[in-house]
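Bench log. Compound arrived from synthesis this morning; before running ITC I wanted a structural hypothesis for how manganese (II) ion sits in the protein. Inputs:
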Amino acid sequence: MIVVMKTGASEEEIGRVIERIEGEGLSAHVSRGTERTVIGVIGQGVDVHRIAGVLGGMSGVESLVPISKPFKLASREFHPQDTVVEVNGVRIGGEEVVVIGGPCSVESEEQTLATARAVKAAGGKLLRGGAYKPRTSPYSFRGMGVRGLEILARAREETGLGVVTEVMSVEELPVVMEYADMLQIGTRNMQNYALLEAVGRTEMPVLLKRGMSATIEEWLLAAEYIMAQGNRRVVLCERGIRSFDPYTRNVFDVGAIALVKGLSHLPVIGDPSQGTGRASLVVPVSLAAVAAGADGLLVEVHPNPEGAMSDNAQQVTFEGFEELMAGVRRVASAIGRSAAEPAREPQGVSA
Ligand code: PEP
Ligand code: MN
């Protein structure tokens, strides 16, 4: 339930309510708005009517509102303000649309460094790249493992871009944490509850992809698994859901972005690369995602997409990424947001 404090409730009154909630063995989560403060109450096995009776009568309390959704910590009812998740100094969920770019997989030091430089030059804020790759076939390239993580760290050292990379299992979590700035949970692991709880026990930012067959409620309940362990630094990522039509790899659910922004206070970003499976669709779908309210994008970029060791049909070239960033800036400004300017003039353009 949520305790709505009166406008102008004093710090003492707020403090007494928190103390009372904690005294009942429950946890209190305070959100301070410009107008009023609300306090979310979470706990298990409590007599809701008795607690409501106790809190409802306290000084400074205006009303009590039950949380109607099965997800609590992730719900907008629980925390009305937008949450901002900071990754290596980059704020996701604020006014700026944050673009995360990089290869699907780390393949070599040259490929990753060249891509990181191009991403940074065009205005990308974080570097993506898989070192542990979930592949449909066990015979496909499954990533460079620790060597891939070392290459990502090397790229961060040179460019300053924070690293977003996937963790596939609880066993790999310690090593991935040594190198990553943000842990990606892939579509296939969205309902790996042991992994969700393990990342929930860390303090690292988590990028939670939507399961390819997950409903929006299942996706938000997956976020709840992480948050219930104490880690509130969750960013949701729409990456498309399965359909019957082979022309696109997935159906990118642009409506889900706008919907989830209303249901949850967590930042939401879009992944048009896995979302469409086609490089030619990455720019238009990126722009649609930003127009729908996405707080950022996760985009696959490769020096030579055709020769990529994974997802070679959907990675954009460096020029493609520059074009994408230019479009994102235009759409962001049309809806009252911003996106980073290029760090320098695009290559091939003379002054
Ligand atoms: C990826 O980002 O390369 C990836 C494997 O994503 P997903 O889990 O969404 O398929
Ligand atoms: Mn990929």
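What the model suggests: The pocket of manganese (II) ion (ligand 2) is lined by residues 104, 274, 300, 310-311 (CB under 6 Å). The chain has a mean pLDDT of 95.
ITC booked for Thursday regardless.
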